[in-house]
Amino acid sequence: xECMGVAVKCGTAEVExxxxxxxxxxxxxxxxxxxxxxxxxGNNRLVLGDFNAHHELWHSVLGNDQRGxxxxxxxxxxxxxxxxxxxxxxxxxxxxxxxxxxxVSPGLTNDVTWQSVISLGSDHLPIIIAINRPPDFIDSERxxxxxxxxxxxxxxxxxxxxxxxxxxxxSDVMVI
Length: 176
Hints:
By secondary structure, the chain is α+β, with helices and mostly antiparallel strands. It contains two helices and nine strands.
């Protein structure tokens, strides 16, 4: 895994851009699984690059692979989220895929636009990311995001049913 970072001053604020490259599976040691969790911290941070992984979280049409599932789990466990649109980032022949992932901190999520554009120079398409904020934006406070897909709905159902059964039956519809 390779990573290069730059910090860009925007007035009084600073934006960190980390560019990643994770080689394809056939170029890595067997069972190699990259860990990006330590990069998914802070505010005003973009983690971008060629991750050579497929997952529906970044709109890959080739299906989820093992590396993609591990990376998606790391992203889901953080406060960061992907901003890829439903468009390919790589075109090779008739195969359109999304190997390039754009992940942003929660303070930037609603202010970032993402677009891939057609290029004849490479099978990876250029990606244009714009931060739509005034240059002197203020760091936002850390927010909590809930992943309802990871919820234990059966456990929740059992807990709530048990708690409701423990409540006394109302004797008057006007009494709460």
